What does this fold into?
Amino acid sequence: MIPSAFEYLRPQTFDDAINLFAQHGENAKILAGGHSLIPTMKLRLAQPKVLIDLGRIADLNYIREQDGKIAVGAMATHHQIETSELLREKCPLLCEVAPQIGDVQVRNRGTIGGSLAHADPAADWPAAILALDAELEVAGPDGARVIQAKKFFVDLFQTALKPNELLREIRLPATSKAVAYVKFAQRASGFAIAGAAVVIRPESKAVGIGITGVAAKAYRATASEKKLEGQPLASENIAAAADKASNRVEALNDIHASADFRKHLARVNTKRALELAAARAER
Amino acid sequence: MTTPKRYFGKPIKRVEDPRLIKGIATYVDDIKLAGMLHATVLRSPYAHAKVLGIKTDAAKALAGVAGVFTGADVNAKCGLLPCASPMPDQKAPKHTVLAGDRVYYAGHPVAIVVATNRYIAQDALDLIEVDYDALPVVSNPEKAIEADSPLTHPELGSNVSFTWSLANGNLEEAFQKADRVIKQRMVHQRLIPMAIEPRGCVAQFSQADGTLTLWTSTQIPHLVRTLLPGMVGVPENKMRIVAPEVGGGFGSKLNLYVEEALCSHLSMRLGVPIKWIESRRENAMATIHGRDQIGDYEVAFQKDGTVLAIKSRTIADVGAYLQLLTPAIPTLTGLMLTGCYKFKAMRMDVTGVYTHKMSTDAYRGAGRPEATFVIERVMDLIAADLGMDPVKVRLRNFPKRSEFPFDTATGLTYDSGNYQGALRKAQQVGGWDALVKQREQARQAGKLFGIGLSTYVEICALGPSKIMAAGGWEWGCVRIEMSAKVTVITGATPHGQGQETSFAQIVADELGVPMEDVVVLRGDTASAHYGRDTYGSRATALGGTALIMCVQKIVAKATKLAAHLLKSKPANIVFRDGKFFVKGKPKNSLGWRVLAQEAYVAKNLPRDFEPGLEASSFFEPKNCTFPFGTHIVAVEVDRDTGEVEVVKYVAVDDCGHQVNPLLIEGQVQGGIAHSLGQVLFERAVYDENGQLLTGEFMDYPLARAKDIPRYIMDSTITPSPSNPMGIKGCGEAGTIGATPAIANAVCDALSPLGIKHLDLPLLPEKIWRAISEAKVK
Ligand SMILES: Cc1cc2nc3c(=O)[nH]c(=O)nc-3n(C[C@H](O)[C@H](O)[C@H](O)COP(=O)(O)OP(=O)(O)OC[C@H]3O[C@@H](n4cnc5c(N)ncnc54)[C@H](O)[C@@H]3O)c2cc1C
It folds into this structure.
């Protein structure tokens, strides 16, 4: 890789990171796993003057139970999530999404925080975070705040993070095993052309559906969710709900898939994910 | 080949692998010389533009920059890039090393920076200001030959680069008399070879003795040494080309590239070694591409499935320039167009067309995959048209085993073949009947299940010198060292195919020595004085034979020496298992150790006997070889997403006698992986502005481990009469045989919906659309 020159900073605490980020402002980029940032630096599309590496901040890398929720630190890698016993028990959707990201090398370096902050429209995590109704804790020089997942993704590569804020933690509700993620991958990059994450909440007879890859930002398939509210998960109901998974969505259109195909795949994968989750609910 | 074979035919592991797997092999980028500077090439972002001016002052002023050079600085000193396969009516632009006042494709080299390291060189590149005036872009080769098209190279007056025709037999009569005629257009998409190691070179000019050494990631150091001296003004005998470890070529490094000339020139000019390493993006946009033919095909046949004639009008998109072999690629398509079938007549008309894109040239299979794809799709189309079994259509048109050597309608003579045998064996090892039953059941269950078949033949061991621009022989040298270790030098330049192993097997057997005692040298013109290198699956058939010839000379010489030492006559000497003895007295034998010492110490030699035990040979083949085989594939297509899953893969290949079946398996497997890519997802995409949209692995997919099905592999053995070992070659068999087999399987899966043909790549969306449209009908 032949990037342009940059200064490399390695804070030891989260507060130091916030301070350094505030100090260097626009010239700085946060470095997490580097697996989205470094490819752009390689092509010199990004030329940050300063890199602030979060890699040594011990209290950013954890997966733990906390006040009845599961808290995942921003620097938890895809691999750590994939192999977490706690998540497998309490929030299995994450364990289903993680192994569908990239390959082993990517999963060993890439982090959930980096992925969410980057807000690639084809990344996998956003679908899961939306379906789960997660909360994201962010912090900046003015203190910390919590953003709801559905408010976090703003547009193509744009989040609700303020320019000087960092993502610190993702908080997830415990769920049953009735979850699923079904993805149609772009052949070359492995990112999603259409990924559908489903969470069935038997207690409230509701489902959460998050869809990524299809539009400029990941979204909740609310029309599909409504259609299933209070309904038994019979296959006719599932089919009818999945049919609405890309209603009124302005889909992306590129050499890898047309807008039509993306919308079609959103429907197909929503149906498949619902069926899979429903089958798991019965077990 | 008198002694029993200890190594020949054995699946011996590659001696080259440990160093490659451990990461301790030396590639070009591992070469670091004292005082070495780094070059980086500035490339045009436009596909077609006028260059109004280039400002290099800021770049030159950057600390660490040794020089910034534009076309005005170097073009007059570097000569023009050659095309070694010109066509009689060819019109070609001057192919200078850097752009002059125009650029002709996105990626066209415009300037080169030399600096103390790559980072500074890249920083300097960003400081160069080029004033471009964008011009209309020619991107579609079919539109390019319309009268009102803009011109790729205005000075040529036309976008037609060349035309080429091949015709044999009475075409008109065949089409008149035929019961049936089918027409089909087929598009052979543009592919990017994407060798895992991009190109790169290090040039070192010695002021002391005027020699130039060029380490370059190439398949053809010898051809580079033939072509480069004239370009940069260094005599051939002062030029040394080294191809160190090469991380894949597949034809993309069977070329002479501007960077090789530029680095050579700049090393001479600046008096220091210069290194240039290509980035992945440059590799995608500025290393040759493959395929890109569009053909209209017409075939005439009888009701019983007998084929009569085939004709084709083909447009070959050659890109902006003719590289080394660009025009030759579609001619190979023409020569192989009739496949392994008895046609009475054929005609192929090719128009080579310039567009504002990277050049096309030889990519794994080089023209032959196009031919095989066409003829094997055509066989299935005929079967579908007549409601016949595709196997029966093929069997009806094969030449019999006894008809070899077989003269084809294209004018070639196939050396040997047993097409029925390979087909039968593939059906047998693949469980054909069970597969057909499986298809029936799958279809009844509403699944889209298909079986595809390809019975292919290819042309290899290129070739007799009469058909090759710079000679088609191969050279080798064998030396028994004084310690009786054996040094083998081949001109065939294997670069990953495994001949360091297979050549050691061949020579060890012939000399009766342990394989471990044999070292195979390759890829350096200082040791391998002559050679014609590796392409067209030629190295073992030709280079291996040259080595056999060397061994024969050495054994004859050693026989004389042994006779002298044993006080007998050469005619009475027997050579067996590495030992020379007088007939009937095997106990009193001489081995290589004694003979080598005597030969070099040279105190007790026969009269008129030259010291030493070394021989070199050129082997000139009489004909090419024609490997063949049958591939059978079963696929299932996902109705909802259009995704294709390969359920079964059977490959039966016949490449004649096998020196090392493990190497052959590896070659064929690699080739099939390329085919999977070509059939299912690979394609170079340029937009209408000539921008390459698939210039990174983010957008250009290659087959990965998880895409590879479990292979059922077997072979038949039909020796080639074209060389003494009966070898045919297998480097491209996979790519040639597999592509139509997989495509036929997908088309078969879709056939219940009335879908007859789809062009490659068979992307899920394309299949989904075809299914949706079929439902509507
Ligand atoms: C070959 C390959 C294949 C891949 N395949 C997939 C795939 O299939 N699916 C998928 O979803 N992803 C895929 N990825 C992306 C991968 O998951 C990345 O790791 C991820 O998107 C970014 O995480 P990171 O930790 O590497 O972040 P980085 O690249 O380090 O950072 C990404 C961006 O987020 C910012 N950032 C990072 N952390 C924070 C923080 N805590 N607060 C604020 N800003 C922050 C950075 O400044 C940067 O702008 C792939 C990547 C590669 C290289």
Remarks:
- The longest strand of chain A covers residues 192-201.
